[in-house]
Each structure stands twice: as structure tokens, then as C-alpha cells.
Design goal:
single chain; alpha+beta; Alpha-D-Glucose-1,6-Bisphosphate, Chain A, domain 4; 7 helices; 6 strands; globular
Length: 208
């Protein structure tokens, strides 16, 4: 019995070592992107947790932006594993087309996270550059940043989360949320990349 326990403890230590945690929290991002300040960071000024993940998309920012604007529960979905999202009742159904009815987002708009979940308020909206949401309780910032890279786009997603109350919550964040969020956000970034590259730019522009 002791050997399996030792093996398990060793595997857990390796999984949550600083290099592993850095990989969880900065997948796809350059060191400069992970360390740099981004618009909206001041909305959660002293986070207990920050993740910065990124991907290169073979399309200009104008082709990526419509997919971000329509993101959300009961809207365009989150372009990730819908079946996992919906286990938690989040009502996510990822769209495979630009939805004109959800293209008119404005600062101050509030989007639900599921029918009974917390709401996210649009705090920064700089077309084709930055879209930042903050939870109404002020504890969570989720921002997207588009950076032109020739004919391509760097899409950077950042989460800043204030300190959760209590040791148990911090342990859950470290052990469950950090690796779990990588699984979901990686799929989301790849989902946006696939859609923006697959839908012709002319079709995306005509739908907005």
C-alpha cells in the first residue's frame, strides 16, 4: 500500500511543481504576454490568481472579433466542451456561425453565466482590440486582447481572480480549477481559431 501512495504523492508533487503550474497558467503565451500589463487589469488590482493564455489565428482581428462579441450563455456559447459546461447547467451551445442578434454588445451590458449563475458586466469594449468582462461581485476579470501579427492575430485571454476566502477554497483553486481551466480554455481558444479561420472574412463581415 505504501508504494502506490508514494507514487501518487510524487506524481501530485510533479503536477503541481512551479514548472507545471506555470504551464497550466500560461499555455500558449509568450513570457512577455504572460508578464505584461493588459487593459482592464486594474479592475481586479491584486489578484490571488492570474492566468494568461494565447493562440495565433491565421485571420485578421476583424475576423476574430465577432466570435468574441457573441460569446456567452444563451448566446454564441464558449466554443469549448459544451457537454461539460452543461453538466453545471450553464446553457452553453457553441455557435458555428456569426449570430447578428448578438453583435451589438456595449459597456455596461451584463451577461449571465448560466440561467442561475453570476453575471458578467462588460467593462472594456475597444472594437477589434480588447473585450473585458468583470463579475458583478468584482472578484473575477476575464479579458480578451487581439494583437495584429501581419495577416494573423494573437488572441490573448487573461483571467484575474481575487483571493478566495479560506484555505479550502484556495486548495480547490490550486488542485482543481487551475488544471481544469486549462482544459476548457485551451479548447475555447482552439475553437475560436478554427471558426475564424474556417469562415471566410467576407461572410463574417456581412453578418455583423
Amino acid at each position: 500500500m505504501r508504494l502506490p501512495l508514494l507514487i501518487g504523492a510524487g506524481a501530485a508533487a510533479a503536477a503541481y511543481s512551479p514548472p507545471a503550474r506555470r504551464w497550466y497558467l500560461t499555455w500558449g503565451a509568450t513570457p512577455q504576454e504572460a508578464a505584461g500589463r493588459l487593459p482592464g487589469d486594474d479592475l481586479v488590482p491584486d489578484p490571488a490568481l492570474q492566468s494568461t493564455r494565447a493562440i495565433t489565428i491565421d485571420a485578421p482581428p476583424s475576423a476574430v472579433w465577432p466570435w468574441l462579441v457573441q460569446i456567452g450563455s444563451g448566446r454564441g456559447g464558449a466554443y469549448t466542451y459544451d457537454w461539460i459546461e452543461n453538466l453545471f447547467g450553464l446553457d452553453m451551445h457553441s455557435a458555428d456561425r456569426i449570430l447578428p442578434q448578438f453583435q451589438h454588445l456595449a459597456v455596461g451590458d451584463e451577461l449571465p453565466v448560466g440561467p442561475k449563475g453570476p453575471r458578467l458586466r462588460v467593462e472594456v469594449l475597444d472594437a477589434e482590440q480588447t473585450l473585458a468582462f468583470r463579475s458583478v461581485d468584482g472578484a473575477w476579470l476575464w479579458s480578451f486582447h487581439l494583437r495584429p501579427d501581419g495577416s494573423r492575430t494573437r488572441l490573448v485571454s487573461r483571467n484575474r481572480i481575487a483571493s478566495p476566502a479560506g484555505l479550502a477554497h484556495r486548495l480547490v483553486t490550486r488542485i482543481v480549477m487551475e488544471p481544469g481551466s486549462l482544459i476548457m480554455e485551451r479548447r475555447m481558444l482552439l475553437g475560436i481559431k478554427d471558426r475564424a479561420e474556417r469562415i471566410p472574412q467576407s461572410a463574417a463581415s456581412a453578418s455583423t
